[in-house]
Amino acid sequence: MSIFEYRGFAGVRLAAEVIGADDDPSVLLIHGAGQTRRVWDSIANALQQAGRRVISLDLRGHGGSEWPEDGRYDFEAMVEDLRAVLAQLGTRPVVVASTLGGWIAAAALERDAAMLAAGLVLVDLPLNVDPDVSQKIGARLRDVAMLAPGQARWDIRVLGAFDAAAMTERLDGVAEHIGLPTLYVRGAMSEIVSREDAEAFVDRLPDGEFVEVEDAALVVTDDRVDALGGHLIDFLERRAPRGSPEYRAGSDARTFRDALGCFATGVTVVTAFCPDGRPIGLTANSFTSVSLDPPLLLVCIANNAGSAPFLREAERFAVNVLQIGQQPTSNRFAGKGEDRFAATPWEVGEFGTPVLTGSLSSFECVRDAVHDGGDHFLLVGRVIKAIFEPRRDPLLYFRGKYRKLHFA
Question: Per the database entry, which stretches of residues form a coiled coil (predicted)?
């Protein structure tokens, strides 16, 4: 067991207990209001035995995490805490979150979910909470905190920062944007969420599943952890397996594509003129230098691309390496049905090729060779001019998403 510290929103210190081997796939556990990471102890041990690296996080104002002097416990601060922790992890975990933690996780993964996590499990996520039930739960938590003043495991000021009605309203429309395999676990006797509301939420998820734990009001309790652990391990083995995905010749081409996507690349737009003088271009990330003497580079062009016949025959072409502000340009030249050059700043280069202005770098080339390569062809160019902008950062592409450099 190790204790790690992370930096949350505005530098707040967040403590987490970590068990399991570093190389095992990770699971991040997030507790609810009035709890600490200790509530997950049994679950964490079961997950470790199932071959998972388990990170149990204390929310701000809870357990070993910082209790901010300014009492900053608003919902968005906690959402940004979680996003900050996920960004600091060396791998994308499956996030398992209960009640308040579920609110936080759902909101945090509404954006860029696939870049931050591998899956999501929401346990007893409150939806359309009855005001009377909300007040009863709040009073119960206050009573527990007041029984042992000075020994509380969490800052009672947390309760004043949340309005259950506002939270459920904040989550309206979030489900549709959580682009991850997601499991919703509900206690069959729950008073904080009805089966109908839970099923409706799951139906809106792009990839959702629903299970109930019998004879339970709240699932994360001592007498129901075995049932919860069983559902968690089943979900993890099916949707985030320990073994690496594998491609073999003749199997699913998508798996091969995903494997190739593990190689982070820059993004380019390859441009040329048609014989009738029209500029053409397309987005390509299969680009590499070939030789310094002579100065050669190559790009791979799909045979079925609309611009492919012209690029195959073009005597001269340009490769424009895009910078981080040119993501719209990348999308434009990757799509169809739009006058790509009308909406893109460009000029005719010194050697008669369309050059996209403002690019990270642009290479004007004379065709040196063309080689067939399966469903693509390799266009080799001899560089006759190169210009670049050293003060810009590159637009990157990794695992099907645009990325940007992170400077340590």
Answer: none
Question: Mind giving me the DSSP string for 283-320?
Answer: EE--EEEEETTTTEEEEEEETTSTTHHHHHH-SEEEEE
Give residue 151's pLDDT.
57
- pTM, whole model, 2 decimals? 0.71
Q: What is the tally of structural domains in the chain?
A: 2
* Same domain membership, residue 289 and residue 200: no
Helix%, strand%, coil% for the chain, nearest 5: 30, 30, 40
Let me know whether 161 and 92 are in one domain. Answer: yes
Q: Is residue 253, in this structure, part of any structural domain at all? A: no
8 Å CB contact between 375 and 304? yes
Nearest Cα to 312, choosing from 371, 355, 356? 371
8 A C-beta contact, residue 11 and residue 17 = no
- Domain match, 310 and 229 both: no
**What range does the domain containing 59 cover?**
2-239
pLDDT digits (tens, 9 = 90+) for 191-208: 788 899 999 999 999 999
pLDDT tier for residue 138 given thresholds of 50, 70 and 90:
low
With contact defined as beta carbons under 8 Å apart, do 197 and 210 qualify? Answer: no
In a domain, 247, yes or no: no
Kindly state the DSSP code that residue 99 receives in the 8-state scheme. T
Q: Is 245 a member of any domain?
A: no
